[in-house]
Amino acid sequence: MKRTIYDDDHEAFRSSVKEFLDREVVPHLDEHASNHGLPREFWLAAGKQGLLGLEVPEEYGGSAAGDFRFNAVLTEEFAKVNMTLPSCVGIHTDIVAPYLVHLTTEEQRQRWLPAFCTGELLTAIGMTEPSGGSDLAALRTTAVRDGDDWILNGSKTFITNGGSADLVVVAARTSPEKKAKGISLFAVDTTAAGFSVGRVLDKVGQDESDTAELAFEDVRVSNDDLIGELDTGFIAMMRFLPQERLGSAVTNLAHAAQILEETVEYAKERRAFGQPIGSFQNTQFLLAELVTRVEVTQAYVDQCVLAHMRGELSAVDAAKAKWWTSQVQNDVLDHCVQVFGGYGYMNEYRVGRAWRDARVTKIWAGSNEIMKMLIARDLGL
């Protein structure tokens, strides 16, 4: 079914993103995987192309698109290449950007946003902790006031861009007695004394990303590095989580759709018992079902994108999009591996790498079980 949410401007932007990927990214994918990270040259090239500042006002070097459909186009095209690109870039452009644009002072925006847009200042967000997982209210990292400064102690884990970020937005407990209402956000310069990167984690998939552990040992930050009002960090995280989960949904579906398209072509060419495997009824029925599942899901995700543009996307609807697309993605890719047979289990084939890259999508951005809890709560259960 033809999608109708994009106009000519979005498609022109899509063409420029494709050209950027063909020129700057695809020739270097093996290097990204072997180095377990995207090089700074990638970020600088993306900044020069104008891909990093879609949510940043023009006076700070961004394009201020004011239209999440451009974010979605960028995410879709990146996801067609692999899961790492929309993950690493999305953390910077879709997840950190709202904090730095909407919660900061004029001085902070002048300090951070121009380099954020050029790729000279790479960002990450430090929410998840070793003991907490999806339970953000249970975080243990603390920030204790010391005159006009704050002293941070604690640790974070599973931090995308953690090994290479220049600035990390860190959630820390500033008023322990207030529980969830006592969390604040700080921008931590990764050159600060006491900050350290632990392991760059050895993941099952997404070899191209530098997912890392972070440690804060008596890290001193200025009160000028406080993002937003004191003790409002949890509220801010809840405010911006729907966009993160929508970005995950867009990524999940675009990734699955691309690999499914390649699988359909493979079924036309691969021969067994003297005929293409796509001529067998079992394969035909399977691929018909998978294509239908992807296209029907796409209709819902597109409506979520439009709702988000209008400021109407609820946390519950974002949760539905996140968990459902990750389940569809994993189901589709598992079947695609099966169609490829033994070759599907080889790392040299994209389908095998896509299959293992996708597994984490049922866990990150809030596990699927947490998403279902949010939905059930909305039902009054």
Please render the helix and strand layout as text.
Layout: H1 8-25, H2 29-35, H3 40-48, H4 68-81, H5 84-102, H6 106-118, E1 123-126, E2 142-146, E3 149-159, E4 167-173, E5 183-189, E6 195-200, E7 212-222, E8 226-227, H7 233-269, E9 271-272, E10 275-276, H8 281-309, H9 315-340, H10 350-358, H11 368-378
Parallel strand pairs: 1-4
Antiparallel strand pairs: 2-3, 3-7, 4-5, 5-8, 6-7, 9-10
Helix pairs in contact: 1-4, 4-5, 4-7, 5-7, 7-8, 7-9, 7-10, 8-9, 9-10, 9-11
Characteristic key phrases:
381 residues; 11 helices; four-stranded mixed β-sheet; alpha+beta
Let me know the largest β-sheet. Answer: 4 strands, mixed
Task: Sketch the topology as an H/E string, one letter per element.
Answer: HHHHHHEEEEEEEEHEEHHHH
What is the overall shape?
globular
Provide the low-confidence segments as ranges. Answer: none
What is the number of E strands?
10
Strands ordered across the widest β-sheet: 1-4-5-8
Instruction: Work out the radius of gyration.
Output: 21 Å
H/I helix tally:
11
Percent of residues in helical segments?
40-55%
Overall pLDDT score: 96
Distance between the amino and carboxyl termini? 36 Å
Q: Which band does the percent of strand residues land in?
A: 5-15%
Structural class: alpha+beta
